[in-house]
Amino acid sequence: MQNSLRPLCLSLETLHRVKSRMLEAMERGLSRRTHSQATVRMLPAFIRSTPDGTERGEFLVLELGDTHLRVLLMELSGDTDQRVTMKERCFPVPDAIAQGPGEKLFAFLATCLWEFLDGLHMPKTDFELGFSFPFTCRQTRLDQSYLISWSKRFQCAGVEGRDVVVLLQDAINKQDRYHIKVIAVVNDTTGTMMSCDASAGPCEVGLVVDAGTNSCFMAEARHVEVVEESEGRMGVVTEWGSFGDDGALNDMLSPYDLQLDQASLNPGRQRFEKMISGLYLGEIVWHILTELFSGRMTPALLTKGSVQTQDILEITDEQVGLATARRVLRALGLEASDQDCFNMQQVCKAVCIRAAGLCAAGLAAIVSHMCRNRELSRLKTSVAVDGAVFRAHAKFSQTLQQLVKQLAPECDVTLVQAEGSSKGIGMVTAVASRLAAQRLQVNQTLALLQLSPAALGTVQALLRREMELGLKKETNAMSSVRMLPTYICATPDGSERGDFLALDLGGTNFRVLLVKVGSRERGGVQIISEVYSIPPHVAQGPGSQLFDHIVECIADFQTKQGMMGQTLPLGFTFSFPCQQTSLDQGILLSWTKGFNASGCVGQDVVKLLREAVKRKNHFALDVVAIVNDTVGTMMSCGYHDPNCEVGLIVGTGTNACYMEQLRNVGTLAGEEGRMCINMEWGAFGDNGCLDAFFTPFDRQVDEASLNPGRQRFEKLISGMYLGEIVRRILLELTDKGCLFRGRLSPKLQTPDIFQTKFLSSIESDGLALRQVCAILEELGLHVSCEDSVLVREVCQVVARRAAQLCGAAVAAVVEKIRENRSLEQLAVTVGVDGTLYKLHPHFAQQVQETVRQLAPRCSVTFLQSEDGSGKGAALIAAVACRVARHQRA
Ligand code: G6P
Ligand code: BGC
């Protein structure tokens, strides 16, 4: 007895080996390279989501079985306790249909459908339908599936190689009483997974152990290499019954398996299935019995098929098992002793435990794979189980559950009895319908933010017109871009020397810097700097308080650097629009971004700074230049690349400056040479010229800002606003039921929860969904996998629009420079700074791409500034000092 059963005993260690071989086989099935030869096929099922409980409406199901067709209408309430009601009817499928011409079969399916619907007497005539077609197919979409071959009882001419959805849809369309759209073809395993109630948490694995065995699970789409998608999840049907067909299980096969396989219809195939599923368990036991009772052979015992799987499962039961064993042995013509019955029970237990063990190893492989690929430390999931083997006896499930725990200790797996595949097919249909409706809504919403090349060309042309208007004295007031002269007429030439102080105010950080400008041989420019914070109440309080704070920071810096008492020339980067009349004077035209200190607009900022110094009475300051950050950046980059004639900032705010011909600057006297113009393009559109481009989200963001109606272009582009645009879109999508299951959380209603760094991190390449979820969780948003995919999509659309608009604006600038110089081709460098441009994974590339398209005659190099615009401000101070020295000499 012991000897007979030994080959069936698989130690835990062996099961671990089975698990790892299954994992390898799954990997081969998922990889594009090895998919076609893989023994475990890993077929994509084009199911992107499991039910979330919000599905609602009435859905039709056609479930074609071997002998019957079941037609079902499922109604989902879609409210908190998702009620499901089903009405169904079965139609026998006659042989003449199952083996007749294809058209007849599909006409039969359609007729049964009308008969069923007519019987319901419903006013509704529009339906979506899910079709369960249990034959080997090559599925290419949820609603596209090509029959490879008929099996079982079916053999209809003219169907193989064709898309069964088209055939069914055509048959349905032959009448016009009902409008029915076939939206899903479903495999029975996915039906099992989808039938489970969503309320207990996601059920992302389906397991069928019936006559055959199969499993499915929700994989990360990017690991399913045979489909194009890389976002979100994708249902995969493993087809694991054929695991081992390449020999992976050879060292575990018992002599009974070999005998069974040899005698089967498909020797060498479906090796795993033959050790597990209902079609074979009885037969394995039978092979063992023929060995055990070889001395007492009876005609019944000699007959294959004389032992039923159903009985085997029952015999494993502690209570009724021995009695069933006796009955079965008697039926085999054996006069069974107590010992015989006991032995029979041992045999059945060994066969079932092995089946449950192998099944557990397979399931452990699936959940471990999910856990690893989702980069989780623990995975919690329900597994929907179905099939005769589960239904017949609880023991199988218990053993399975215990062993999975041991084989995949990192996963919490709960087995749930599925509620029948018809419900699951209905759910696949309902989920597909929900996703399609949501997609439509999402597309409509996001279409507002998608700009065609022609639209971008219009933006470019509009900016060009505003630039011309802004440059001319008579029309300057009409233009939304101020085109401010900066009194900077040359870029650094490398001969600048000396130590300088610099202030850098207006971006994310306020900095005080000591800049030592030496010869290039001696290391060029060296910077020591300190970052100070400007709390919002200071940025938005009385101006005197803001400038006192700045002076305190300078004093602190000087003390730390042991520079108290020294008066170095100072360059002041002040990143707000200022009207300059000289290099060291700048009248603040308006605050932008997060600043709104009172009493400053209309004042000379340098004067405000000097007054604060005086109030503090600490030290003296020698401010020689006030510089916009775009100009500081251009200078800083110009020190390394003399071709740098444009400065661009895309950070908290956005703006650009460039070298304009003095003769074009109507607001200044002088014809010769060039001057750097601070465009202040953030205000582009403030005169209404961009109104056609604003979406409702842009208008909301503008209205809620510190400066409504102003900096309209900046509010489409820069880091301070993109997160808010995203949040407004998410609110709308939630309201439309496309996100967060339609529930608005207080968190999402909090302004400014998304900052630039969030936009940058959420779009990082290769970020697993879990990381996207983690970023959102960190913000206090509880998201599903689909939510996080959609949030990421919204971020992408908003950031892409920003980058393209920015590109269109850069194109307008470089084209103007080219035309100014009457050049066929212009080679120019743009010095760039700003957190959005630098940190966002795709922004820079999208800007550059747009410039290439819109300014094809300019070859534009983008040079990122590494040291901030404080360095540029110091260089400008250095040039000013050099010029002043020359003038004195
Ligand atoms: C540079 C400058 C800042 C400027 C910033 C823009 O680093 O030194 O003065 O305002 O770029 O970037 P941010 O993303 O900080 O607004
Ligand atoms: C300011 C500009 C500045 C830009 C980038 C805008 O809000 O008006 O002066 O260059 O932000 O910091």
From TrEMBL:
Residues 205-430, 646-879 form the Hexokinase C-terminal domain. Residues 3-196, 442-639 form the Hexokinase N-terminal domain. It catalyses: a D-hexose + ATP = a D-hexose 6-phosphate + ADP + H(+); D-glucose + ATP = D-glucose 6-phosphate + ADP + H(+); D-fructose + ATP = D-fructose 6-phosphate + ADP + H(+). Its EC number is 2.7.1.1. Pfam families: Hexokinase_1, Hexokinase_2. SUPFAM superfamilies: Actin-like ATPase domain (SSF53067). GO terms for molecular function: ATP binding; D-glucose binding; fructokinase activity; glucokinase activity; mannokinase activity. One of its GO terms (biological process) is glycolytic process. Pathway: Carbohydrate degradation; glycolysis; D-glyceraldehyde 3-phosphate and glycerone phosphate from D-glucose: step 1/4; Carbohydrate metabolism; hexose metabolism. One of its GO terms (cellular component) is mitochondrion. The keyword Membrane does not apply. Keywords: Allosteric enzyme, ATP-binding, Glycolysis, Kinase, Nucleotide-binding, Repeat, Transferase. Belongs to the hexokinase family. Catalyzes the phosphorylation of hexose, such as D-glucose and D-fructose, to hexose 6-phosphate (D-glucose 6-phosphate and D-fructose 6-phosphate, respectively). Mediates the initial step of glycolysis by catalyzing phosphorylation of D-glucose to D-glucose 6-phosphate. This is Hexokinase-3.
